[in-house]
Amino acid sequence: MTKIAAALIFLIMNGYVYWYLGSAEIIPDRALFEEFPNELESWGCMGREEIDEKTINNLMVTDYISCNFYRAEPNSAVHLYVGYHERQTRDRESGKATAIHPPEHCLPGSGWDVIDSQVVPINFLAEAGAGPAGEAKRFIIAKGNQRSLVYFWYHSRGRVIARSHQKIFWMFLDRARLGRTDGSLVRFTVPIQFGDEEAAEATFQEFAQTVTPLLSDYVPN
User: Fold this and answer.
1) Out of 77-86, 96-105, 162-171, least confident range
2) Which of 29, 63, 142, 154 is the most exposed place for a label (fewest CB within 10 A)?
3) Which tens digits make up the pLDDT trace of 101-147?
């Protein structure tokens, strides 16, 4: 039985390597984030944030938007980050991995503690015709007396994925089938003011439903 299992694994790996190496790499066309609007209904970006070169080299991100969006009535703020990676392999020149970094690995290094973590369904993309339904990770993070609500997901080749192992599985499969490993991290961060988590949740839901219908031009399906 062990020999049969080993033979099957060998055949599967052989087939995968042939499939993987036999498909040409495809980088899809897309709009650049410099074209992403700064005004979204009642929301306004008060100035794009530029990520320093050291961080860019660490993230190996191809294109991104990072901005605090504000709304006067009612007074609300959301930080939007979308980072696009045209490939998630290993850079030929530097040898660095170009895969998306999971946010939960980066937050402790920047002084934030994750005090609540859930995987929740995301349906409003499908409802708005902006993409498939899927899952997101929902965090409550803390630094001193500050609290923020964070939602993020991997928006990759027509999928909305919360779990890193699923992202990796589909990345390898799509590289073999489609010649694509491109993908994006979509992240929203909402300050929790006066301990009102429900208000922060409502702000996220409203802002995300405003933003996500625009993403398909910048994040290819």
Assistant:
1) 96-105
2) 29
3) 888 777 766 778 899 999 999 887 767 666 677 899 999 999 999 99
In 10 A of CB 196, how many CB atoms? 12
Sequence letter at residue 78: V
Query: Residue 39, class by beta-carbon neighbours within 10 Å (0-12 exposed, 13-18 middle, 19+ buried)?
Result: exposed
> Rounded to whole angstroms, how far apart are CA atoms 81 and 183?
14
What letter represents residue 217's amino acid?
A: D
CA atoms of 64 and 100, how far apart (whole Å): 12
Q: Do 140 and 197 contact (CB within 8 A), yes or no?
A: yes
pLDDT digit string, tens, across residues 187-206: 999 999 999 999 999 999 99
On whether the CB atoms of residues 172 and 89 are closer than 8 A, the answer is no
Long-range contacts of 16-25 (CB under 8 A, 24+ apart): 16/176, 19/176, 19/177, 20/172, 20/175, 20/176, 23/175, 23/176, 23/177, 23/178, 23/179, 24/179, 25/87, 25/175, 25/179, 25/180, 25/181
Describe the chain by its helix, strand, coil percentages, rounded to 5. 35, 35, 30
Rounded to two decimals, the pTM is 0.84
Distance CA 200, CA 76 (A): 9
> In sequence order, what are the residues at sequence separation of 6 or more whose Cβ sits closer than 8 angstroms to the Cβ of residue 44?
38, 69, 70, 71
CA distance 22 to 179: 9
